[in-house]
Amino acid sequence: MMTPSGLFFFRLKRNIKEQAKAWSSVLDWTVLLYILVPAILVFGGLYREIWLETPKWAAGVPWFLLLSIVLFLIMAFGVRIRIFVDEADRLFLLQQSRWLKQLKRYGMIYSFLMQALVLVPPFLVALPFLVGVEQAKLKEIGAAYLYSLLFAMLMSMTIHMLAGMFRKWRLIVMEAIVLLIGAAAYVYPILTLKPEASIFGEALAGAAVLLIIVVIVYLRRPIQFETEVKNERSARLSSTELLMSQVIERKPVMKLKKPLFMRRSGRLFKKSDTGTIIAELRIIAFIRSLSTLRIGLGFLSVTTGALIAVPASAGFALIGGFLFLIVPWLRAQWEQWRNEEFVGQFPWNTADMFAGLRISRFWLLLPNMMIWSAVAGFRLLGLWAVLPSMVACVLIWRVAHTREWRRPALKAEASNAGRD
Asked: What digits encode the pLDDT tens for the residues 304-313?
């Protein structure tokens, strides 16, 4: 006789078989063996050498900060709550509330175990650096893992409940607020993980209490069946979509809808050269895309929290590291936008496209530069240094981009003159 637990494990087993079939269709075991064995030997030997002797370059890396950023990104975009419901359950299980509650409980436990597994590899990779460079004890690292696990489950359950309470742009706004608050609430206690610091113990206890409250609320809330079916379908097809994305050309469905921001496409700048117009189009497209805007705001929140946590003397140096991380992402977003059908149909000049890239990058990162420099200046010299720090950083940012804009223009003029 079928029971709620039997139904859950039956569907879990079916899901594992489906994922295994999807991956086995593209990964032959002999080829996989040829890849895994050398990888284990090479990376295993490298990992052993790092344990025996810490590299010199590792001494200048803030490993707790780097690990906390990686872990928070995993929490924000990683494991989600799954209860393994099917479309046909609306005919049978909707009348069986007890069965649905049991599926919710088993799904919560399954998600907790998956979170525990997903968080292990980052800690294993960073373990020799945390012990050798940060001089952290295993007890402190274990406490950081426990706090990360509790916080990851808290984030997953909160976002899962928001998906059943809000729709469309309201859901995106609420998720962004949760990510902004969660970034500060997670990164700062991890950076204060020291034996003499009491804030981490308070944060760990607070996360445990808050998780208990969220679990009670989650179990008492009625199931949002349509949302759960949609999430389950997306999770089951994620591997297949990933594998087939490079084989089958995706034809997006055209949807006409009014944007949330910048509904009137007016001019942003006074200049009318082609590079400036391209930059305007890219900035408007960036702000109108809630997905890119959410990632940008999440990165700004995490980095600002990092500036507050690190020593004041390292603030301005850390800004350069932030640029090193975000500029490649902006370049990838630019390439995706540039290759869109509407933008790609015009015969843009290479120099104009280069100028548009630089101009749009300057203005898109200008708010980040102002906030970073204000926080770094305030922590270093106090309130009176906020405005001078902002002005200095903005001027440096402007001069760097002005020189980059002129170089491609001069090269293009020289090449055109040579052709003539």
From this structure: 888 887 787 7
Report the distance separating Cα 150 and Cα 414, nearest Å. 60
Please enumerate in sequence order all residues whose Cβ is within 8 A of that of 280, keeping only pairs 6 or more positions apart, or say none. Answer: 267, 268, 269
Q: Which residues contact 252 (CB under 8 A, 6 or more apart)?
A: none
User: Could you count the other beta carbons within 10 Å of the beta carbon of residue 210?
Assistant: 15
- Which residue has tokens 């206690």? 189
For 27-50, give the DSSP string: --HHHHHHHHHHHHHHHHHHHHHH
Q: Rounded to whole angstroms, how far apart are CA atoms 329 and 346?
A: 24
Looking at per-residue pLDDT, the higher value among 403 and 167 belongs to: 167
DSSP 60: G
For residues 285 and 335, the answer to whether their CB atoms sit within 8 Å is no
* Distance from C-alpha of 32 to C-alpha of 23, rounded to nearest angstrom: 11
Q: Which of 323, 258, 239 is nearest to 18 (CA)?
A: 239
Amino acid identity, residue 233? R
For the chain, the domains span 4-244, 274-417
Residue with tokens 């050498």: 49
pTM over 0.85: no
pLDDT at 331 over 50: yes
- Tell me how crowded residue 417 is: count the other CB atoms within 10 A of its CB: 8
CB atoms near residue 292 (< 10 Å): 18
